[in-house]
Design a protein that fits this description.
Blueprint lengths: L8 H20 L15 E4 L2 E4 L4 E7 L2 E6 L5 H9 L8 E3 L2 E5 L5 H38 L5 H34 L2
Antiparallel strand pairs: 1-2, 3-4, 4-6, 5-6
Length: about 190
């Protein structure tokens, strides 16, 4: 039977950092009252017989606080981009002006803000669960190493405490990101 690989806290820290990066990406797609180019990141456009990300057929910019500008490179794809933005369920209605789509960002209603805050909370909880699962993997790894006499009981306890501290730190970062995003959403 092959021996377990040595325990490296860095490996688990990197995986936990990945959960925070994923959360930041998900939060980037949540609409606040201000325009943000990342709002359009998840949009896929049916162009040239395939589904492509919006950024592969157009450039996205934010000329002012409540306006997103999408400059489509190919005239033939303008209507596909318009359709993709309208059907993305973001509540956006582009104004087509030649090869440019201007997208005014309407102010959020109180009800929509509450709804977005709940969605942000769900995203945060998913990443908290991911971090806890990584902690569980690390603890199982330590338990197996101790059982196979790869590490002593004292080393197991020491590494276990390090894993718990890393977990607590990452959960705190997730909570901080969530609080920040929630304030951003609720700000009128």
């Amino acid at each position: 039977m092959a021996a377990s690989p040595p325990f490296k806290l860095d490996d688990y820290n990197k995986r936990m950092d990945g959960a925070i990066t994923a959360l930041q990406h998900e939060f980037g797609g949540l609409r606040t009252g201000r325009a943000s180019a990342s709002l359009l990141d998840p949009i896929m456009v049916d162009a040239y017989g395939a589904s492509s990300p919006l950024t592969s057929v157009a450039s996205v910019s934010v000329p002012e606080a409540r306006m997103i500008s999408v400059n489509v490179w190919d005239k033939g794809v303008v209507s596909a981009v318009d359709k993709a933005i309208r059907s993305a369920n973001l509540g956006l209605n582009p104004i087509v002006d030649g090869q440019t789509l201007r997208i005014p960002i309407p102010p959020l209603t109180g009800e929509r803000r509450t709804e977005l805050a709940k969605i942000a909370g769900k995203y945060a909880e998913q990443q908290r669960i991911a971090v806890r699962n990584i902690r569980r993997d690390a603890m199982e790894h330590l338990k197996k190493l101790e059982k196979d006499h790869g590490i002593s009981e004292d080393e197991h306890k020491k590494h276990g405490a390090e894993v718990q501290k890393a977990t607590d730190d990452h959960i705190k970062k997730i909570d901080d990101e969530f609080r920040h995003k929630e304030q951003e959403i609720m700000q009128v």
